[in-house]
């Protein structure tokens, strides 16, 4: 028993591992382990019985947490957008734009995955949508099955790191940081990761062109009456839109100065990108609208299609991320506006009816309940674990690692990588992150950088063969038997599970490269954050002392600015007091250093 009481925290952590290995659901494993070791610790005298009395307050705090309201809002927004056919339209249109290039369909999947991530934030919706729509087309035109599977699964997992990501919301909540700051920190790394995916597809197009063929001419449906492709018109619109975006980004500080009425010298990069992108998009929308309303015929079918299909998701991105980055709305309010906008867009497009809405609401309720139960179990476990000095045990275990901050980050990321084989990001966020956050904070590691780093690492949990959830989602919609293609009428062979696993491996390695870049270059995250205002407390203290000394000298005799008459000379006798009033002492003060004697003198003079 002495061994158990002296090592209660590691024994408790080992008990949790046993619960999980027995196959119990994570939420109930956390709660049961916390309650069991809580009552056992009280019996053994490890901590007082009052520890369990704190539990109701902790649970009430979960229900009162406004930040977590963003989870159901963003989930509902994503599911409505997915069910309203936005993914299908995007993949069809962007596929036509990039189709003539080798690897064009794969590039279209990457770009659409990024757009879906910025508007939905739900991995399952993105992977299933792109698997149902893009995979048959890529198989039809001869894409390598491993690449097709890997690029769809990897692009779907971009919803983990591109705001409004659910994992970033949970990470901010567990680390005690702002969700808006976490979104800003993840902005640049997320798009670097998209760039690495694109680079991998381009490399394959150069060195293995047979694995990523171009779309054949007969499959390009948006053509003009004269047979031209319409790319020239699209290039002109994109050029005007890009020029407007660059001009707006270059003069963003002037716009802020005009809007607020006060001089603004610097604007954060993420704010510039989002606002400039939306400004350029608005210009393109105005051009396309004028062309359609007035029937000018200046734009090709492809240019009009691209403009009107891309506007809704980009508008939704500005409504959600733009208002958050500009400080107009909190993440919870941004999620609420996004959900409402998705409802309006779905009904306006006549793609959303009551049965689909009920399905979206039901799926949102299940996910929100899942998160709530895990949080209740994690809170129960962490309460008892903290009472048993578990954080100190973790701190001593990790702070003594060689290599300082870098050694700590390498070990932690290796641990997260291997735990992600068995646990998803919800479980990692509620079990592991609360243990690591305080240690990182004491080591001087910026918690926004730490949170984005862990979120990037947790993204691999969706891609790990053989347990990655994105691979399971893709397996559920990929053909598992030979079938006849409805367009070419040719027999298409199925996609095997091993091909899906092999296709995921290069993208897992790309994600690990991105984790390494974040460790090596923290400015990729911290450079997007608002500059911290550093206060020199010593200078503030010296300023306060000077102010006090000035006040003392100000209140000295002869220096009273409120006195209407100069102070009397010491030799001048005071004027006699009117009859019935107390006579002031001759020295102008209380007449004595002893307050009691001064009071007696005053009362005596008054009685006379």
TrEMBL record:
Q: One MF term from GO for this chain?
A: transmembrane transporter activity
Spell out the residue ranges making up region: Disordered.
Answer: 554-608
Q: Can the keyword Transport be found in this entry's annotation?
A: yes
Q: Where is the composition biased (Low complexity)?
A: 565-587
Q: Which UniProt keywords apply?
A: Cell inner membrane, Cell membrane, Membrane, Transmembrane, Transmembrane helix, Transport
Localization per Swiss-Prot or TrEMBL: Cell inner membrane
Quote the function comment for this protein.
Part of the tripartite ATP-independent periplasmic (TRAP) transport system.
What is the name listed in the Swiss-Prot or TrEMBL entry for this protein? TRAP dicarboxylate transporter, DctM subunit
Which organism is this protein's natural source? Acidovorax ebreus (strain TPSY) (Diaphorobacter sp. (strain TPSY))
Recite the lineage of the species: Bacteria, Pseudomonadati, Pseudomonadota, Betaproteobacteria, Burkholderiales
